[in-house]
Amino acid sequence: MSYRIEIENLNAWFGKKQVLKGINMKILENAVTAIIGPSGCGKTTLIRCLNRMHEIVPGARVSGRVLLDEEDIYGEYIDPVTIRRRIGMIFQKPNPFPMMSIYDNVAAGLKLNGMKNKSMLDEIVEKSIKMADLWDEVKDDLNKSGASLSGGQQQRLCIARALAVEPEVMLMDEPCSALDPMATAKIETLIRMLAEDYTVVIVTHNMQQAARVSDFTAFLYLGELIEFGPTKDIFENPKSELTEKYITGEFG
Amino acid sequence: MKTEKKIPKFLSLLRSKLRTSPKKIYSYMRTHRFQILTGLIACNIFVILGGMVYKMLSQSWLSIETYGMGFLWGRVWEPTPPTPGVPPSFGALPLIWGTLVTSGIALLLGVPISLGIGLALSEFSPKRFNYLVSFFVELLAAIPSVIYGLWGIFVLIPFLQRYVYPSLQTVLGFIPIFQGEIHGPSILTAGIVLAIMIIPTVAAISRDVISAVPNAQREAIIALGATRWETSRVSISYARSGVIGAIILGLGRAVGETMAVTMVIGNSFNLFTSLFNPGYTLSSIIANEFREASTPPVYISALIEVGLILFVLALVINALARLIIWRTMKTVKGAEAV
Amino acid sequence: MNKYAFRKVKDRMMISLCYLALIVALIPLISILMETMIRGAPVINLGFLFQRIPPLGQPGGGIGPAIQGTLIVVGLASLIGVPVGIVSGIYLSEFRESKLALAARFLNDVLSNMPSIVIGIFCWTLIVVVIGWSVIAGAVALAIMMIPIVARTTEESMKLVPASIREAAIALGIPQWKTTMTVVLSGAKRGIATGILLSVARITGETAPLLLTILGSRFWFSGFTEPTAALPLTTFNFSQSAFSAIDWPKAWGASLILILMILGINVVVRYYTREKYG
Questions:
Q1: Chain B contact set for A108 (CB, 8 A)
Q2: String of b and e for C245-275 (b: at least 16 CB within 10 Å)?
Q3: pLDDT per position as a tens digit, B66-110
Q4: Does C126 touch chain B (CB under 8 A)?
Q5: Model-level pTM?
Q6: Which chain C residues contact residue B319 at CB under 8 A?
Q7: Which residue of C has its CA nearest to A115?
Q8: Domain boundaries along the sequence of chain B
Q9: Is the domain defined by B89-336 classed in CATH 3.90.770.10?
Q10: pLDDT tens digits for range C143-170
């Protein structure tokens, strides 16, 4: 087992405010790593630094290194566009393109990369939707608008869309927080399945979800990485008192 | 005597219709004084528009009666025919043609530029730049039509005649619309001036609707590895109904524009086939001929009928723009309801 | 060239084209402003501003009556249009869901996009036919153009006043209508003033409706039921003159005054409503 992503001394700012302080972490491939912590601790910022989405906000800044397969994604000559192609992201609120059909949503990334061959597109679209466990529900009408699905279905559509471009890593920013328990359960199962082929990093404010779904857990507090290790250890034997307090719900 | 009997009858009819006593009506009016007073003033719009419809129709009736539907495809405009005893003829086809072609050129040239500006300001520029530049683009909108016309006559036309039109004819002369004698004041010149005049409108609205596209949509395509241009294409696609509405509003402006067109179009009543020909539009013939049109009475009536056509055209275009913008609001809200 | 490099090139190219479009649009603006200054400034002096308008082809003189005429017609139009517009706007904002408001709002929109020459025709049929070419007809025409704009901006400005302010006043026992007329209106006054000024700037430059109502003249104001001069009309007349050397510069001079008035109002308004960026 090797490390897909290595984070070295990562700092991040919004203007003058520093939101991440000296993060060092190694993310194992083909595993699910969860990032937990109270509101405002920097978890979303951390995950957005992994695919260079943090810097698109005016005034946002990053320092440090993030190695994807031993190459620093913040290297001097690296175009963020190429990084984002290799690292997929699922957002808190599902954001399918309402003006495109289900098919076109999933194919969006492929078409960006210049794929025009209809049969190839068909094949990959079907494969991705099946991987996202959405095929049976939409197979009869792929031409419906992307926005016509339920919340949980929309989120799985977004997952299909991200999977279609065959990323190496899947980042998920609280993917279930806008969904009902049944949709949440479906996505959690999906996450475990995805871990077999992809490296998954998931941000969640729901500790039980982290315990259910992840292999490794990182606990962030006020922009610092307090503790990181196998999920079992974090939840049953936390090393830091702060971690224990958070886990037991003393603050949140 | 008669009226005195009618009034009580009317009141009792009203009373039976409303099923309330005059006392209650009066009391309602008292408590809702503010609403009634302001509402009455707000009704001015009905009076104005209603008055316009009525007056335009009644004053053009003479012409409508005389020339019927044929007015719309008539090609002759002779208030005082050379041979005595021959009645005057009026037809609006060359005017409609002129309005459509000049507006068409305005859209062809103006819309791509406006969209480029809208994108540059909303997608590719920092906020400060956007704010400063938008100020100047909107300044373009504040320049009155007559000054566009003045500039058109004395600056644009000489420039086009010397540097642009001859080369244009050399390169594209094989196409019929670019053949024939080159006139400074011409359809093409009017189209160009109109294009410049609609840019601020279309650009400003496009910029606004594109800026209003939710960031979540942009982030979705950026996360898939899109370049800035590719991201802006998604934004335009999301906002396309608003953009179409903006274009139609620009069309409305072009169709109604009068002074600038009159000053650079050459004011020649003909069914032109070349863009280098002078021409006429619905609005410019009115501006040009109305003050001197005294006899015969059907002359003024014909000009007013031209105004009526313009009125209807503007109405239809505006209603279309409203409809499209209204429909955008619905689909966008549906998607955001999740 | 592989696909990715092609996309990068396309990205740069298309973005450059968009900025090019911006430059292309600003060129006429700069040209118009420059040419008006260069060609109009030499003609302007105190005499030009205050002397009477000479016949075409006669050297000397000025545009005094035109400036006076514009001020009078625009002033009268505002006197009619502003109150009507504001009250309409108040109704639209306070009773916005009512059927009347919905219809009025839609129709206001229709009227504000109406070609100005059509409004000129309407006022001709309504007023000129009865009392002849007159200042009143012109003022009414311009007022008709003002009303929908002022109504709209008034409505929008009042909508922006926070509900909490309204509620505070009502909680103090102030009746609804009084709240509107004092607290809300005062909160919206900046937006309303902006709307008024911008619509005044707009109608100052209008030529077409005046062409068919005040007719234009060379003489000083002689009564509300008489024709009069106005800056845009005088500009237009000079521009159509056959005496190029004498009259065309005057056209530029008149348009310089006109543009200074209009842009002056615009710049002042936008300066006072600018947002501050931290």
A1: 221, 224
A2: ebbbebbbbbbbbbbebbbebbeebbeeeee
A3: 998 999 999 999 888 888 888 888 999 999 999 999 999 999 999
A4: yes
A5: 0.89
A6: 110
A7: C3
A8: 2-69, 89-336
A9: no
A10: 999 999 999 999 999 999 998 888 888 8
